[in-house]
């Protein structure tokens, strides 16, 4: 509750939106997880 990480998606959701920088949609660890 001290760090509202879902506040950006509380209204209008997040599907199809490119203007949000959501940490759970980043693909920066794909190669590390393929391993």
In short:
The chain has 35 residues and is mostly loops. It contains one helix and no strands. The protein has one domain (1-35).
Describe the structure.
The chain has one domain (1-35). Helices cover 14% and strands 0% of the residues. The chain has one helix at residues 30-34. The relative contact order is 0.16. The chain is low in regular secondary structure and 35 residues long. The mean pLDDT is 83. It has 1 helix and no strands. It starts with 29 loop residues before the first helix and ends with a helix.
List the helices and strands and how they pair.
Elements: H1 30-34
Question: What labels would you give this structure?
Answer:
35 residues; 14% helix; little secondary structure
Q: How many distinct helices? A: 1
Structural class: little secondary structure
Low-confidence stretches: none
The gyration radius over C-alpha positions equals: 13 Å
Q: How widely separated are the two ends?
A: 34 Å
What is the helical fraction, as a range of percent? 10-25%
Count the beta strands: 0
How would the global form be characterised? Answer: flat
**Helix and strand string, N-terminal first?**
H
Strand content: under 5%
Estimate nothing, just give the exact number of structural domains: 1
Largest sheet: none
Instruction: Tell me, rounded to a whole number, the average pLDDT.
Output: 83
């Amino acid at each position: 509750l001290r760090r509202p990480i879902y506040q950006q998606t509380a209204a209008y959701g997040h599907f199809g939106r490119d203007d949000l920088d959501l940490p759970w949609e980043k693909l920066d660890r794909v190669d590390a997880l393929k391993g």
